[in-house]
Target: VWFA domain-containing protein
Amino acid sequence: MAKFPQAADAASLASGLNVAPLSEEDVIAYNAKKPPVPLAALYVEPTPTPLDYPFAIMPGLDPAKTAAAQAVHEALDTAGFRDLLGEQGLRSPDGTWGAGFSAPTGAPSPAGGPPSATPNAGGKAAGDFDPVTLDRSLATWTAVTAPGRMLAVMDVSGSMLERVPEADNATRMAVTLSAAQAGLNLFDDSWALGLWTFSTALDGSKDWRELVPIGPLSSNRSQALGALRSITPKADGDTGLYDTMLAAYKEVQDGWAADRVNSIVLFTDGKNDDANGISEQDLLAQLKQLADTRRPVQVIILGIGDGVDEAQLKRITDVTGGGVFVTKDPTKIGDIFLKALALRPAAPR
Model:
């Protein structure tokens, strides 16, 4: 909880944790302390597996203990106890809540219906789930939270200096870096991460520059954060996307790690613009030749602004596997980054 923003200023919001899986009880307890930045609850669909406190009467007890346990169980199922549970931020087993429940905005009530507009009036959320949904949810959660090995590649071409009116006139670069820093907070120390930037002729004749080699966040998290904060666009730089993509793919594949999703996440606001680089035909041909089902590399491309050629980018991911996510509004880069992470369950290992 200490990683959430502790102040409402721009710096705290950019560096603090912006999203995390929490129980409803956690959200209620956090907001009850009146933090500078309260949490907003986002309820996912389909309804995930509920957290609960099981109650069971064990067989083989003497009659007196069995009767006492049954009496306790009956008391727990009364309306009065439901209100006591509500005061602690807990629902009843069937998903209903009591009058003391401070439901976060958007809390589902009743099941399958619209969000409740009267948080303390009592309500219900889904309490039951079918085995298929349970198995799918658990499998997805296991895949999403599995350690990953990722190379993040940031576009630093001159167009990243363009201003974004919707973000208090910050540059595209600043908005993208803010989202990247927030994304870094989602990954625990079991992840391995590297960081490159790219434009044209950024490092001698190379269009890309390595800022942080791929390594465990347990040892290079501070280095990665520091590198992100130091990134500045190359004012006269173009977009050497093809050469960079090929080099990044080789880098991730060469160090391929089993039992992880090995991936490239590339942020760009344009299309390939490099007269001295390889052609699209050459790139696709080489990627096809490199592709190895024993060492798969997932490519995720995040496009920002109206200068992105989505079809061009999709032709790349059609070869490598992965996906392209484009938003014309740079302030939505954080949203599409989260959507991109949802690809991980389907990624081969």
About this structure: Residues 110-129 have pLDDT under 50 and may be disordered.
